[in-house]
Give the backbone structure.
Amino acid sequence: MDVYQSAPDAYDFPLTIKQLLNRSKVAARHQEIIYSNKKRFTYEQFFKRINQLANVLATLNLSVGDIVAVMDWDSHRYLEAYFAVPMSELILQTVNIRLSPDKVLFTINHAQPKVLLLNSEFASLVKDYQFDNSSIEHILWLDDNGVSYESVFGDQNRRVIGEYEALVTAAEDEFDFPDFDENTIATTFYTSGTTGDPKGVFFSHRQLVLHSLAEAASLGMLPSKQGVSYGDVYMPLTPMFHVHAWGFPFTATMAGLKQVYPGRYAPDALVDLIVTEKVSITHCVPTILQMLIKEVSNRGQKFNGLKMIIGGSRLTEGLAKAALDCGIEVYTGYGMSETAPLISLTDFSINEPKMSEAEDISRRCLTGKPVLLVEAQIWSEVNQLLPTGKDHAGELVLRAPWLTQSYLKNPDASRKLWRDGYLHTEDIAYLREDGYINITDRLKDVIKSGGEWISSLEIETILSLHPAVADVAVIGVPDKQWGERPLALVVLKSDCQNTIGDDIKAIAEQAVSRGLIPKYGIPSEFKFVKELPKTSVGKHDKKVMRERFA
Amino acid sequence: MDVYQSAPDAYDFPLTIKQLLNRSKVAARHQEIIYSNKKRFTYEQFFKRINQLANVLATLNLSVGDIVAVMDWDSHRYLEAYFAVPMSELILQTVNIRLSPDKVLFTINHAQPKVLLLNSEFASLVKDYQFDNSSIEHILWLDDNGVSYESVFGDQNRRVIGEYEALVTAAEDEFDFPDFDENTIATTFYTSGTTGDPKGVFFSHRQLVLHSLAEAASLGMLPSKQGVSYGDVYMPLTPMFHVHAWGFPFTATMAGLKQVYPGRYAPDALVDLIVTEKVSITHCVPTILQMLIKEVSNRGQKFNGLKMIIGGSRLTEGLAKAALDCGIEVYTGYGMSETAPLISLTDFSINEPKMSEAEDISRRCLTGKPVLLVEAQIWSEVNQLLPTGKDHAGELVLRAPWLTQSYLKNPDASRKLWRDGYLHTEDIAYLREDGYINITDRLKDVIKSGGEWISSLEIETILSLHPAVADVAVIGVPDKQWGERPLALVVLKSDCQNTIGDDIKAIAEQAVSRGLIPKYGIPSEFKFVKELPKTSVGKHDKKVMRERFA
């Protein structure tokens, strides 16, 4: 006899997304959720709207595990989909609408969603999409501008089941969400990655619940001045298609915080919302931070201690200082699409030694200390565990309960990601004696511009198609506004020495117009060189290039 | 093909207790752990000591699931056992050494531990124990006073494998803890409950990890003034045998806080430790709080914002005010042995409306709002979900990821605990519109004296043995110092009307001397009545008695 047998009626609590609502259903019923300047309602109504959206989805004859894709700005609708879709045992695909149209369609074709929630403003991204040959059976039309789907889709509109708000409002507001296996997949999205096609990552209910708890705990235990406390007002400034906006919409809902969803990121509207709604905590890439500083400075104002976690690109000390001067309590979080994303955070304590302004700024720009449950190690090239200290840089490898377990339908990349039981970040770092992770080298070749990743390989491939080009390398060089911008290093063929930068640029612009690369993928500068530095095995030596041209 | 298949080398992260150490192993290596005024060492040494204790246990030829019982004051040794025992796939039994010797032995005989970690100060509790007929094969001797086990055990000492510190120090300080199923049982202990024999509850690794995360998040998101922040110094003042000292030793270790373990609770030593080590957060029952206020007031001093969560008995408004006046940031947590224990906490916010002192004190004494993931409902007697509001009191029923799934080897009590998929607390409460739980009636019959539970039924059984007693009921009546004290209501036989209170008391004292009940189980007062109020089915109506005699 197993003496530890459960009572017949005991509840074996699964870590599913619906459980995130338990506390808020009792403690946050009158708390508010706000969409831009367009809509505001209470959590109590929010819970009903989740039920209503589930009832809309239930009419579509979907099967367990079917994918519901969303193309929207950061909105209350997106938040409702974060809950209603996975709670209905469906999978939410958050489509990165900043990719080139080409890539957007690639991610849809690869994931094979049955339903698409489409904001009218992104209709152009899919205007040439062959819906008849696609997996998409139903479209929910999301619109804030009075654009009708008939006007956009013409005779394709039989797929559109209606406008989101009309459908939701008309639906029954009760829904009995079933319990199911916590390892059921809840979300999927694509990372543009370093090379080639975007790669799909995915997360289970269990992973997202654990991420939410660890995020709440890790940010919660920071002093109230920097961390999350009950009473905070949350607004995302990392898009909701990017790694679930750092998982924060789940965490904030679980905690019952007032939440503000800003729609499209326009600097003046963002600052208005922050001021009016008393937003107290957010997260973004350095480019958005710069935008906010500029906007609020133009107004001759400051922020009032707005807490802001910077991720996606390195926070420079100059920018950190500017942010602090501007009333923003800025610091760093580290993570990647593959890690759901939270891995480390700047450390603050209610009991820390006095430090100079320079020391304070410096620690805010480091990669931070690992958050709860995260096992962070540094490995040598031969997979040996390295000790702490500056002299022991190696690859940062990770274990945590919320890491993608593979890339969707991509066994080769998956085997490269997970080796010897650890997720390999391809980031070079060392561990400081005090527990800080310090990333010294970026992911090999990727260029991060305004928080978006540009694959150098991809741009190189396009430029190399120009008849005058003998060899080409694209590297990221530091840029005040965008973090990094691509620089193209071009070796011209001997009979084409009269070619100028604009000639080469033209082929990149052509690629943009054909939707092959995003506009920000066009190199900002073209340099002509006699030859490119090579490694011992004859590959481009980008490390040397970066050192020479940074 | 399952497109969401894990990569061959992906790590399926189990929620086991060893994972609680991940962050601290990187970020808290130089943090301190302190035992009273006797010992201090760093987390780095603590990790080694866990390994050393595991190596000691590994020599004992134990099997997976064997039980290691601990009888100790709150010590670094206890903390080491919290980790090394379950991490070795053994089960930690935390023996409640405040029970009567009789009950202590009952819990040992019932759980059947193979190993006992025995503090010399508790040797008398087991001095008459028939070790030869028991499950205990090995004893580790814990001693701070130079008492040798030979002097206590005589010829029984062949079971004693040595003194803890000597054994640990001599052992290898490396140990490779294996991964295993997160549903493996990690701990067990006994609740003295309302009626009859103590009941065993038990918790899995997964449950304790989730409790730690939710506790860190729920306390972390309180403002730093009340909640847990990095930089806090933690000391338990709820014994470590009582529901893992609220799970706090796990949570504090996970977060890498400085920790102080006080040994035996002596008021002067406690206040000394709080002052010297700058203890900033603790938890206890009202009786301990009173003791601390008295001690610090005698010194003409105050505490410096010491954060204190009160549980186990109701915090009265008078005591809350006295604590606040004394520099203690006091508030309420609710839970029970069956719930691991955290269920609800007083709510504080960085952004709360101004309130009067009376309002502030009042909310600190309520049962609090449910913590993250906890589903709290109020049910009617016919198991119907009740709405919020004072007029809808009913039984508080619960779901959470960390509730005991049954009582050990007690199917009847287990079936009563878990009904219709919810754990039944037997506490009568209503939910306020703002999310506060308000418990209006205590657990049916139990008397809580100084944080310890006294079973009225048990005392009644003993008193009823007196030849003059016709009927007897024992109820709790409010007591300034102890929270509650037992009052015995006695109906004398018609031919024994000359019997006085002290006659009856004598039989209770006899029961104490025979170890059947604890000393504090002796009623403080004996009242003679003509008859006892009865319910419609003829049972004692204690509700009426309490109303009449409170």
Summary: Residues 43-58 of chain B form the longest helix (16 residues).
